[in-house]
Amino acid sequence: MSDACSARHDLAAAHRMAVHDGLAEGTWNHFSLMLDERRMLITPANRHWSLIGPDDLLLVDDDLAAARAIGLQFYIGYRIHYPLHEARPDARAALHAHPPYATALSLLDDDELLPASQTSAHFHGRIAYNDAYDGFGDPERQGERIAEALGDKSVLFLRGHGVVVVGRTLHEAYQDLYLLELACRTQLLALSTGRPLRVFDAADVDGMSHGDDGGEDARRHFDAMAELIGAAAPEAAA
Ligand SMILES: [Zn+2]
User: What is the spatial distance between Cα 126 and Cα 88, in angstroms, rounded to a whole number?
Assistant: First the structure.
């Protein structure tokens, strides 16, 4: 399978995984993956994520007029994702979603994901928060604003809206989105007791880091999920 084919296969599978993992909202939100410096694969509009296959993904570049002609829902996603990739060339994958627990956390006055669980510690120092609501509105420059708020982090909480997760690879970005939702769920469950959280010391959090394995763990998780939903790559299935 060529790299472009494999990218289409994996990005389509990521949409179906998001449905399986309760991270998706029907036909809304966008996942994107850069094939090179100009060409981006992105979610089509108006197709339920559980049905998205490799051929459904849209291939676009920096032609604004062509992107606008595809339709408003698509164009809004394009205007968020393309400038984000331009600002963060290290982030080949960018996932924007409204997962219920991460989004619920973004509604709170105190919306910080605290390093109180092993899973949330994975995100320590890797999250940015935007304080101003920036959801529906003029899509022009929305991507630039999001890129600015994200900075060099991996995760951006959008106040009262959802999250953006970026990664060097789709596998790493998907694993982070999946784990982020679990970490937010655990924090909200703990807070629902009304009792205070016990947050790890910074030294303990540092000790929980597994270091950079080059994305191997994320790739294995992605492959396992792909197998689970019947989307194993053809080579792997043969
Ligand atoms: Zn959104």
Answer: 15
pLDDT for 132? 78
195 burial type by CB count under 10 A (0-12 exposed, 13-18 middle, 19+ buried): exposed
Quote the pLDDT of residue 72.
85
Beta strands at 30-34 and 93-97: parallel, antiparallel or unpaired: antiparallel
Q: How many C-beta atoms lie closer than 10 Å to residue 86's C-beta?
A: 16
Residue 238: per-residue pLDDT: 41
- Looking at residue 230, its amino acid is G
Distance 126 CA to ligand 1 centre (A): 20
Task: Report CA(158)–ligand 1 centroid distance (Å).
Answer: 8
> What range does the domain containing 105 cover?
3-237
Surrounding residues of ion ligand 1, Cβ less than 5 A: 162
Distance in Å, CA 104 to ligand 1 centroid: 13
Q: Do the beta carbons of residue 177 and residue 97 sit within 8 Å?
A: yes
Q: Are 191 and 233 in contact (CB under 8 A)?
A: no
Res 137: pLDDT? 63
Tell me how many domains the chain contains.
Answer: 1
Ligand 1 center to 205 CA (angstroms): 30
Mean pLDDT of successive 10-residue segments in the chain (238 residues)? 87 97 92 96 93 95 91 87 96 97 96 94 94 70 91 96 96 98 98 95 80 89 94 61
- Cα–Cα–Cα angle for 78, 131, 27, nearest 5°? 35
Which CATH number covers residue 85? 3.40.225.10
